[in-house]
Amino acid sequence: MTSPTSSPIQPSQHHQTVVILDFGSQFTRLITRRFREMGAYSVILPGTAPLERIQQEQPVGIVLSGGPSSVYDENAPKPAEGVLDLDIPILGVCYGMQYLAHQAGGDVKRAGKREYGKADLTEYGGQLFKGIEGEFVAWMSHSDSVTQLPQGYEVVAKTEDTPVTAIENNETKRYGVQFHPEVVHTPKGGQLLGNFLDICGVARDWTPQHILDELIAGVQEQVGAEGRVLLGISGGVDSSTLALLLARAVGDRLTAVFVDHGLLRLNEREQVETALRGAGVNIVTVDAREEFMHHLGGVSDPEQKRKIIGREFIRVFDRAAEEQGPFAFLAQGTLYPDVIESAGGEGAANIKSHHNVGGLPEDLQFKLVEPFRTLFKDEVRDIARLLGLPEDIRMRHPFPGPGLAIRCLGAVTEEKLDILRRVDDIFISGLREFGLYDDCSQALAVLTPIQSVGVMGDERTYSYTVALRAVTTGDFMTAEWARLPYDFLAAMSNRIVNQVHEVNRVVYDITGKPPATIEWE
């Protein structure tokens, strides 16, 4: 028997796509996000993707992204043969513009002055800048410049240091900009990208309602009239939204299994059950607290804890699948960033293992249902709103699969988990009460094994130290510690030591990532 297989990303059913060819710019994803925010469906492919792969997406426009290379590098990446001959508009950004100019017979040279950071356009015009008025601040990042224009092109923007900042050829609908219109540091860049979408004539129908209708139709087509679907629920926004979507698509042919491993936050199980049952999801909760605690007994090594939890989760899930089965389909909340076929990875092969119900036994033969494969997290949240997911779950911070086990340093016991649950609840409720929750990307409490001397009343105490941590981040690859107000931290510290008597010391973690990770274990 084979394990669940996942085919490569199927080109979307969507018939109007703007394809972004990725040449390694750190901003490539942002271009896709901007287009989608403007209602145009957009996907990322590797810069060197074969012509057939690009045509599968039925593109109405192409963007050549920026990247670290120079067009004169021996191994400079370039689009496949035939891409530039397609009869659709093409926009080159930074390296993409230099490549377009170079290809068409222009000259690109190392600039006298490397431009990095904000620059003012001294003049601008043409199709790309249509309707834009006033000051245009652009975010530059380049060391090469176009020094001689190719035939058919004209200069449509300049800065003090770069005489050729944007070019266009209206005959062939080829456009180039030597700055990053997709970043926030280019305030009017969105208008420019919108103009490019107008030139492409793309339908602006990529709206949450449209996405939802398409996803439901897609699931119904894949699962058929009889197919039964199994879904593992974690309580996070992705799996909860997926449960609501599948319930709407296939009704009671969905079984959502929620494993309570005893490492959840205060009242989390009740919250999730209430939200999903109330919305008509057929949810089965497996109470496996005793099993998990038994296997975790005395184990203090974090990696060991993760392995045990992963292994036990699969056992419990597998057992539930057999009891509730048979199922032809297994649903997973895989998101677009996990499968982007970009310069950085080979697409479907590098789905992060922790997003899967990792390493399911080889004799389970499921077909995977992954409706969110083309969506970003914020798009899933938009759909969640339409499906009626309660706000506190819809906007909830990420929570690790191993749960509180990795926030309880050292060996896990029921007593320590109980202390941690109460502390975590005070901290998270406090963030909501003070209106700070949405300013943090993730917030957590950690129970340390440190015990220290304190004074409560006139008594000497010897109790635990807890650490609070809150971070802000765009992508979770790097993070800053959240600058929470002192008054708030003071209030939290007071509440915690007064209400959780096993704790007599509260510290706040002010380390970024790197050098620290977001979680402590």
TrEMBL record:
Domain GMPS ATP-PPase: start-end pairs: 206-396
Residue positions binding ATP: 234-240
Coiled coil: none
Domain of life: Bacteria
Catalytic activity: XMP + L-glutamine + ATP + H2O = GMP + L-glutamate + AMP + diphosphate + 2 H(+)
Entry keyword annotation includes rRNA-binding: no
Listed HAMAP family: GMP_synthase
Protein name stated in the entry: GMP synthase [glutamine-hydrolyzing]
